[in-house]
Write a structure and sequence with these properties.
2 copies of one chain form a homodimer. Chain A has 10 helices and 12 strands. By secondary structure, chain A is α+β, with helices and mostly antiparallel strands. Chain A has 2 domains: 136 residues, Jelly Rolls (Sandwich), CATH 2.60.120; 79 residues, Arc Repressor Mutant, subunit A. Chain A has a 4-stranded antiparallel β-sheet with strand order 1-8-3-6. In chain A, strand 4 and strand 5 form a beta hairpin. Chain A is globular. Chain A starts with a helix and ends with a helix. Chains A and B meet through helix 4, helix 5 and helix 6 of A and helix 4, helix 5 and helix 6 of B. Chain B binds a DNA duplex (30 and 30 nucleotides) through helix 9.
Chain lengths: 231, 231
DNA sequence: CGACCATTTGATCCCCATCAACTAAAGTGG
DNA sequence: CCACTTTAGTTGATGGGGATCAAATGGTCG
């Protein structure tokens, strides 16, 4: 990607949409593009958070490992999402590991550079505040689900989240356009791969989804909405 | 509280600590103080979020009700905490109801006023970004707990959170200095009042806590840390 | 004192994690 | 191209954690 292309791409993303022409130039000029191959991490949990990333294309999963070894996937990040902004401004370690699940391209800023940008471009700060507000609401919604709902419903929510964020229409349904395992769906919904497998098998029996190795196609999205309890 | 007192008080809070003298004057001048009596709500879930609050003293609980009627307590807010900032900047409805659990005083800004303040005082934006980063990490930590830990451990975490945020030393322990029910502890840890009651009863048998109606004293805080798995 | 709320405690049941074993698909290396 | 390994997924059996149902007790307040 060259600079002109980058500008046109990131203008589409919420955090940068409202910037003036000059601000945008400043923001892009101080960024450094970077590629992350599938399977590699943009950063690792525990490492000092000194770089902020914007995903240009591809996809990442954010994995959080607790001291007892348990893991969860806190979020998936695709084009337009920021990564590393949670801890970077607090001079804290990254709270998750960001693994690319597709070959991906990102823009990177050093923590100091991004702080300067925020101070120079109030609109950028405001956009980031809005973006983070949405993240917190999303996290609270997931917390609510995890605390009160049964597994099948939680799995339905996880699948819907995947599809809404990245679903791609195919003939006879919507597919998740990147490799995803039962294990990962489990980590996104607070259950085990076994239970996810049983649930997806049952859905497949009812013609609601088509499964496959690291692959999922929704045949009847509305049925899943109903299972999720969204009516 | 008069203006001088307010200034000296809010200077102690993270979000406002770094402001210049002039910025602080601007921020305080545009705020309106307000009292909220115990049991009343500062704002209600679903209502258009047009006011941002800073808690000066007292305490609030943020309750989220889902469409199926289930509830959780997403956070407690005490002196120095902001409320309403999640949705206000996104022109969205408040995602929770903020109920005062003690008679409380707050400062209030209209959404538009606060946005102007953020644009005029980049340091304020940066502080808010830091504050929100911490909130998201906290929410993800709770999500992790809710997804992977057993009830007793989750209850231990909820109690520790209460005590760390607001614990007051008394002879022979630390107490939670505001009325709190088993029900509420349940809503903070994703379980029922029955299970909380059983767990607290067991702890009381072991001399770890002293319970009472809407009251809790930790006799052996370290034991709870161990139960929480923090070693 | 009576009404109401918070708490306790027992009994029951089922959801789902865990254990275990097997199948299938995808690399890998000669 | 085929044996071998590795990784993903399926499915059965089992047991326990904790929700749910039920009822009683104790505190508080008007």
């Amino acid at each position: 990607m060259d600079i002109v292309e980058i500008k046109s791409v990131i203008r589409r993303f919420a955090v940068f949409a409202q910037l003036s022409h000059d601000s945008m130039a400043d923001v892009v000029r101080l960024s450094r593009p970077r590629c992350v191959r599938r399977g590699r991490a943009a950063f690792d949990q525990g490492q000092q958070a000194d770089v902020i990333f914007l995903v240009l294309n591809g996809r990442f999963k954010a994995i959080q490992v607790a001291s007892d070894g348990s893991q969860i996937v806190t979020r998936l990040a695709g084009a337009g999402d920021l990564m590393g902004h949670l801890s970077a401004f607090n001079e804290a370690p990254y709270p998750v590991t960001a693994v690319a699940i597709l070959d991906s391209e990102v823009l990177a800023w050093s923590q100091r550079t991004f702080v300067d940008l925020l101070l120079r471009h109030p609109q950028l700060s405001l956009a980031l505040i809005r973006y983070m507000g949405l993240s917190i609401e999303e996290a609270h919604k997931r917390l609510h689900e995890a605390s009160t709902e049964h597994v099948e419903r939680r799995v339905a929510h996880a699948v819907l989240r995947l599809v809404r964020q990245s679903g791609r229409p195919v003939d006879g349904g919507i597919e998740i356009p990147f490799p995803i395992t039962r294990q990962e769906i489990g980590l996104m919904s607070g259950t085990t791969l076994h239970t996810v497998s049983r649930i997806l098998s049952a859905w497949e029996q009812n013609g609601i989804v088509d499964g496959g190795r690291q692959h999922l196609v929704l045949r009847d999205p509305h049925a899943i909405v109903v299972i999720a309890g969204e009516q």
